Amino acid sequence: MGLPWPRLWLKRLWVLLQVAVHVAVGKVLLTLFPERVTQHILSMGQQTGMAKNPRFSHDNWVPTFFSTQYFWFVLKVRWQQLEDMTEQGSLAPNCPVVRLSGQTCNIWDFMQG
C-alpha cells in the first residue's frame, strides 16, 4: 500500500527473480554438495539458536530448504516486506494492528480528515 502500484509490481518481479535464483542455486548446491550445505545450514541454525532445541533433528528440516514450500514462503515474506515499506512523502502502509480490546483493524482506520 505504501509504494505506487507500478513500482510495487516492478519490485515484486525483482524479488521473484532473486528468490527463484536463490532457491535454484541452493537446490543445485544441495544436490552436488549435500554434506557441505547441511553443515552450513546447521552452523546458521546454531547462530540463531534453532539448533539448541533437542526436539529439532536436522534430518527433518534441512531437506525442506530450497523446496517449493520454501520458495513460496520466502517469496510471500519478501513481498509482504515490500508492502510494509513506504517512501518519503507517500502514504504510510495500511498495516493491521490489534487494539487493546483484542479487535483487529488497520492503521488507516485511525486517520482523521
Describe this structure in words.
The protein has one domain (5-85). It contains four helices and two strands, in the order H-H-H-H-E-E. With 113 residues, it is mainly α. Predominantly monomer. Can form homodimers but homodimerization is not essential for enzyme activity. This is Iodothyronine deiodinase. GO terms for molecular function: thyroxine 5'-deiodinase activity. Responsible for the deiodination of T4 (3,5,3',5'-tetraiodothyronine).
Largest sheet: 2 strands, antiparallel
Question: Reading side by side through the largest sheet, how are the strands ordered?
Answer: 1-2
Secondary structure class reads mainly alpha
The general outline is flat
How far is it from the N-terminal to the C-terminal residue, by CA? 19 Å
Strand content: 5-15%
Cα-atom radius of gyration: 19 Å
Quick recap:
With 113 residues, the chain is mainly α.
Helix/strand layout:
Elements: H1 5-32, H2 34-48, H3 58-61, H4 68-83, E1 96-98, E2 104-106
Antiparallel strand pairs: 1-2
Helix pairs in contact: 1-2, 1-4
Keywords: Oxidoreductase, Selenocysteine, Thyroid hormones biosynthesis
Function: Responsible for the deiodination of T4 (3,5,3',5'-tetraiodothyronine).
Organism: Propithecus coquereli (Coquerel's sifaka)
Task: Give structural attributes.
113 residues; mainly alpha; two-stranded antiparallel ribbon; 5% strand
